[in-house]
Amino acid sequence: MIKKQNINPDILQLDDYPYEESTKFSLLPGIIDGKEYFIANEKNLIDALNYYSKIEQSYDLLITDEESFNRLLTKVLELQTQKNIEESSNLEQEEENVSLEEFLKSNVDILNSENVAPIIKFVNSMFFQAIKKRASDIHLESHEHYAFLRFRIDGVLFTQAKIDKNIVNLVINRIKIISNLDISENRIPQDGRTQIKISNKQIDIRVSIIPTYFGEKVVMRILMESEDIPSLQKLGFNEEITKGFENLLEHSYGMILVTGPTGSGKSTTLHSFLQTIATPEKNIVTVEDPVEYKADNINQIQVNHKVGLTFSKALRSILRQDPDIVMVGEIRDKETSQIAIQAALTGHLMLSTLHTNNASATITRLIDMGVEPYLISSSLIGILSQRLVRVLCNCKEKNNKNRKSLEDVIGKVDFDLYEAKGCSKCNFTGYKSRIALGELFVMNDEVKVLISKGASDIEIRKVMIESGMKTLQDNLIDLLEAGDISYSEAVRVGLKD
User: Fold this and answer.
1) What is the pLDDT of residues 290-310, one digit of tens each?
2) Which of 317, 312, 386, 376 is nearest to 353 (CA)?
3) What is the pTM of this model?
């Protein structure tokens, strides 16, 4: 036996060698400095020696530390699953159209680590079900005895399966392998990407893994292609706001801001704006963190903090690229906001987002960042504050138990309220889709004067409403009156804000 520490072996590929079985006994064929060995680690040496005594190949046995062994194990697992990835990446409905709970019950071999096929099928089924149910995110959460698989559908998390603790580690390792992450590392956060193919359509998935007290937590964001970006008319905004967008996007320079909390659809709206105004004669450049929609007709830059590529640094470089239209994923600091405003003042149409609750708060937020009021009034041409609201399925039922609560907010109510019920068509959620609603303010002279005087957002908001801006609350009341949303959904989105 030979002992070596801290090495990085390569795989020794042998025909008809039982890699899956040897993985179980921690004995793998590898190459070090051009010489072929069977490699084991000190931790599992007894199992490896027992297996070594039964195999026919005659290579020297090399003992190494656990970290070095795991480097080889990662390579072997990647090689093992590469063919399976290619063969099973194009998910077909007839194979995967089964609930994840049923899958776990019917596949008794899923705990058998000698066979990776059930795990691959489970992960494929998970992706298929997520796409089928219109999920935007997949959550895999480890707890003390079980793990839970949850999908975020229309902005709300729904539990899809309760998974045995032993299985979840195999599932996470499978996700790591297809995302090119280190399966031997479970102490630090890891980020990666993978792709799946459903009905011959390639879908990108962003993977984030973090260590938690009882194990690792995985969140996968399903990213969309440019053809999935809805048009302005399909975003769900009312006709008045849609017309306001179209007028704003006709400007050749100035800044348009989209605001709202995380998950309110700001990125989708911005990309819809870009697709509306993208033409071959325009140079459109974006800087995003991360790139959530891949578009062929615009130039997209992804922020990379590891190498110092921040929003502000990327934006400075973009302005030397002769752009017509610039989109910054988010204004987070004083430096980015000042560069963005300077760009808007020097002949560029600038689109960006901010995390504020309403249109008037956006102006005071910029001032808080250190932007001079006169620069805001000179550069800002419009603000959209938006939310996403779930629309009731046709199975909705009349329920006026909250009428009194609504009257406490808006006064006399002379229409019926509806609540979610649930049926097979909506996966028993009671909701069929989400639409965007918002308040759109187009800058006018009166507000410019208020900004220059340092008025509060309450004063600015009052003038905005007097100028004809329809508030988020107004739009929610219209949807309640039409019977399109429930009272609980209106409250969740911001009826009482």
Assistant:
1) 887 888 889 999 888 888 899
2) 386
3) 0.72
